Amino acid sequence: MRSVVTAALVATLVAVPSNGFPNETESTEVSAARSAPVIVKSLSDYPGRGRAVTETQKAEIRSVLEQLDGNTKFICTGARVVDNPYRMNVAVRMRAKLVCEYAKSLRPDLSYWYQTKLTEHENFNGRVIVVSK
């Protein structure tokens, strides 16, 4: 009788993983399948006071959209330096909106959001940064 109980306990312990969780390779495969790569791209600078999306920027947007692998969100952020007047905020917001509208015309299946942010870095002033996740 004692050997039957011992055999049953050994069989149970062998059948169930020691920590109750799937082994490491299984959990890595599951998490890799769920997470899409985050893509961040600062678009080329706008010429002068322009607001329209240039051909160079359109090519950059198409390049970002081609890299998507399970991503569902596309965020367009217009950046401006803190010291700029409010009218610059309106301009960079319009730029971000136009970038998102162009991307949406190519991939309407994604969720789009546009916004403005303040920056301390002069080289980002007036630019649009796109993020896909």
Account of the 3D structure:
The model is unreliable at 1-32 (pLDDT under 50). The protein has four helices and four strands, in the order H-H-E-H-E-H-E-E. Helix 4 (86-106) links the parallel strand 2 and strand 3 (111-119). The chain folds into two domains: 2-31, no CATH class; 35-132, OmpA-like domain (60s Ribosomal Protein L30, Chain: A, 2-Layer Sandwich), CATH 3.30.1330. With 133 residues, it is an alpha+beta fold. Strands 1-4-2-3 form a four-stranded mixed sheet.
List the helices and strands and how they pair.
Layout: H1 2-15, H2 24-34, E1 39-42, H3 55-66, E2 73-81, H4 86-106, E3 111-119, E4 128-132
Parallel strand pairs: 2-3
Antiparallel strand pairs: 1-4, 2-4
Helix pairs in contact: 3-4
- What is the name of the CATH architecture of the largest domain? 2-Layer Sandwich
Helical region count? 4
Assembly form of the protein: single chain
Name of the CATH class of the largest domain: Alpha Beta
Unreliable parts: 1-32
Q: Summarize the biggest pleated sheet.
A: 4 strands, mixed
Structural class: alpha+beta
